[in-house]
Specification:
Binding site for [4Fe-4S] cluster 2: 46, 49, 54, 68
Strand order of the largest sheet: 6-5-4-7-8-9
EC number: 1.2.7.4
Largest sheet: 6 strands, parallel
Binding site for [4Fe-4S] cluster 1: 37, 45
Distance between the termini: 51 Å
Bound molecules: iron/sulfur cluster, fe (ii) ion
Helix content: 40-55%
Enzyme class: oxidoreductase
Shape: globular
GO molecular function: 4 iron, 4 sulfur cluster binding; anaerobic carbon-monoxide dehydrogenase activity; hydroxylamine reductase activity; nickel cation binding; peroxidase activity
Structural class: alpha/beta
Number of helices: 27
Length: 635
């Protein structure tokens, strides 16, 4: 057994219950996997053709090449490119669904709103579309057309979602490297082709292709998905709620939404309210919806739905015995949930044609019948409530108050209370005068190799103490929310003196009557695009390249291929991008060197791997200070 499975008291409490209930969890399975394959860990195993698998001896005593002649450098670079392309594919697929939804909504064929006309206009304007006197649905269809043209682009031209939204200086860098993506599907296909047996054997070319996948992810995945979702459901504004498993309620029907795409979860939130009387009719006080992973973040940001927990404790949510239904869509869903749900009364519901889990009930989600599916799911939860066994229920009494909903628009809105004409000025002034040393974006997952949340929390404590403002998304945001870093008290407790002064000034001006939280929750994993938009705006305001900004990124506990693709995008934006878990690349000196140093000369950013939270925080601060110096801020 691992010494510490988590630092989240609710998870620790439930891990004990899981042991008592005889439930096997992710930590047990991790233990059974020990020792993990050394070749795989180093990226030195190739299964790209069926002459293999081939593996390279990292100690130089065994084979130095695969059967085809592929070296360690080639094998590692090919494996990485495939992983990053897979991460990008997940986000592009997500974005594509959101584009389809906007199209059908604009045509009046589905019962979805176009909630944010201002955002629609802003995006249309950014794409060079005339907005004057056009009906929202007409404008939406024109925006959709550009998105579809990007998806089906047969030309050599780059995606318009990239050329319209990326910083100018970055576009020049990417163009000079030949990594501007065309149609995202084509780029992902090409990466698959490029890495098959007998194809690219140049590690440098493969690493550049990986950087291109980062851009596919950043713009064809993250940015496109967020833009579409904001138009459909609204751009987030500050909301106040709670985080951690203590948000489940013994006397309510508890329905958890888990996964990533808000197209269904938005409907569930709506129907949970409407069907509340049916819950009351079976003796419950109502329906409590709570979220896991990014479906949770999405409905938190726009609807103020509380967060249940993050990736690593998804099984433990069911172990509470109080979850009547867990509905999942895509990504980060453990296949073990089916088995665990069968030990309690929980009804696990899958909804997507590409995510089916034995033991789960499958209720197909389609845009055309979303309301029916959502109603059926809420009713199943109400029915399951009646089957709940009170003897098995244990809801750990932990929850932290949180403020979330910090879209760029919300941040600019708060700052405009200080300077209505130039809202970014107060932020920039405080960066220039050193009250805010810099900004770090913490993103990504939990990883079972790290005690749940410890890296997020310990590293961020150190950053805040040193007056670094932190913005967060994904499961990192969950971790920091649970740890009490997303409320005003968190500013008092964790922020360094000068950061506290700024947070207090903004909080007072924005009418909170208290400081802004020291960690700003900017949303789901696709909402990393909001961080991209913020740094693009900051760079534009200052007239510098994003690579010059005192800004860094970190995925403290990365687990998914998506974390690698998001991280690669952050590197292409010119940021030092920290990873707290070593990715499978150390088998190649050349690839490791390119990723952690060699790329910097050409792209400005680099990966920084450090497995100790304190050291990582100081490494990032050092990087930020170098950038401050280069900008002439601290002479
Ligand atoms: Fe081995 Fe080359 Fe086939 Fe990979 S592509 S499995 S290294 S022969
Ligand atoms: Fe996520």
């Amino acid at each position: 057994m691992l010494n510490i499975r988590s630092i989240d008291p609710a998870a620790l409490d439930l891990a004990k219950k899981a042991d008592k209930d005889g439930i096997e969890t992710v930590w047990d399975r991790y233990e059974k996997q020990q020792p993990q394959c050394g070749f795989g860990s180093l990226g030195l195993c190739c299964r790209h053709c069926i002459q293999g698998p081939c593996r390279i001896d990292p100690f130089g005593k065994g084979p130095e090449k695969g059967i085809c002649g592929a070296t360690a450098d080639v094998i590692v670079a090919r494996n990485l490119l495939r992983q990053v392309a897979a991460g990008a594919a997940a986000h592009v697929d997500h974005a594509y669904e959101a584009v389809e939804a906007l199209k059908l909504a604009a045509e009046g064929k589905i019962d979805y709103p176009i909630a944010d006309i201002n955002k629609l206009k802003a995006i249309a304007t950014g794409l060079g579309i005339e907005t004057e006197s056009k009906e929202p649905n007409v404008l939406a269809l024109e925006v959709v057309q550009v998105a579809y043209e990007d998806m089906g682009n047969h030309q050599k031209r780059p995606m318009r979602w990239v050329s319209a939204h990326a910083p100018k200086q970055r576009l020049e860098v990417w163009e000079s490297l030949g990594i501007l993506p065309r149609n995202p599907d084509r780029e992902i296909r090409e990466a698959m082709h490029q890495t098959t047996m007998g194809m690219d054997a140049d590690p440098v070319n493969l690493v550049l292709a990986t950087a291109k996948q980062g851009l596919v992810d950043g713009y064809g995945g993250l940015k496109l998905a967020t833009d579409m979702q904001d138009i459909l459901f609204g751009t987030p504004a500050p909301v106040v709620t709670e985080a951690n498993l203590g948000v489940l309620k013994e006397d309510y029907v508890n329905l958890i939404v888990h996964g990533h795409v808000p197209l269904l979860s938005e409907k569930i939130v709506q129907w949970a309210k409407t069907l509340s009387p049916e819950a009351e009719a079976v003796g419950a006080k109502g329906v409590q919806v709570a979220g896991i992973c990014c479906s949770g973040n999405e409905v938190l940001m726009r609807q103020g739905v509380p967060l249940a927990t993050n990736y690593l404790a998804q099984e433990l949510a069911i172990v509470t015995g109080a979850v009547d239904t867990m509905v999942v869509d895509v990504q980060c869903i453990m296949p073990s949930l089916g088995q665990i749900a069968s030990c309690y009364h929980t009804e696990l519901i899958t909804t997507m044609p590409i995510v089916k889990i034995p033991g789960a009930t499958h209720i197909p989600f389609t845009l055309e019948h979303a309301d029916e599916a959502a109603q059926e799911i809420v009713r199943k939860a109400i029915a399951a409530y009646a089957r709940r066994d009170p003897n098995k229920v244990h809801i750990p009494d932990y929850r932290a108050k949180i403020m979330a909903g910090f879209s760029v628009e919300a941040i600019v809105g708060a700052l405009s209370k200080l300077d209505a004409d130039q809202p970014l000025k107060p932020l920039v002034d405080n960066i220039v005068n050193g009250n805010i040393v810099g900004v770090v974006a913490t993103v990504g997952c939990n990883n079972v190799k790290v005690a749940q949340d410890i890296f997020h929390v310990e590293m961020v404590k150190e950053l805040l103490k040193n007056n670094v403002l932190v913005v967060a998304t994904g499961c990192s945001a969950h971790a920091l929310a649970k740890a009490g870093m997303m409320n005003s008290e968190g500013a008092e407790k964790y922020a360094g003196e000068s950061l506290k002064v700024v947070l207090t000034a903004i909080g007072e001006a924005a009418g909170l009557g208290a400081p802004l939280p020291p960690v700003l929750h900017m949303g789901s994993c696709v909402d990393n695009s909001r961080i991209g938009d913020l740094v693009t705006a900051l760079a534009g305001y200052l007239g510098v390249d994003t690579a010059a900004l005192p800004v860094a990124a970190s995925a403290p506990e990365p687990q998914h291929e998506k974390a690698l693709s998001i991280g690669t995008w952050a590197v292409t934006m010119g940021f030092t991008t920290h990873l707290g878990v070593v990715p499978p690349v150390l088998g190649s000196k050349q690839v490791t060197e390119l990723l952690t140093a060699g790329l910097t000369d050409v792209i400005g950013g680099k990966f920084y791997v450090e497995t100790d939270p304190q050291t990582a925080a100081h490494g990032l601060i050092e990087d930020i200070c170098k950038k401050r110096k280069a900008l002439g801020l601290d002479q």
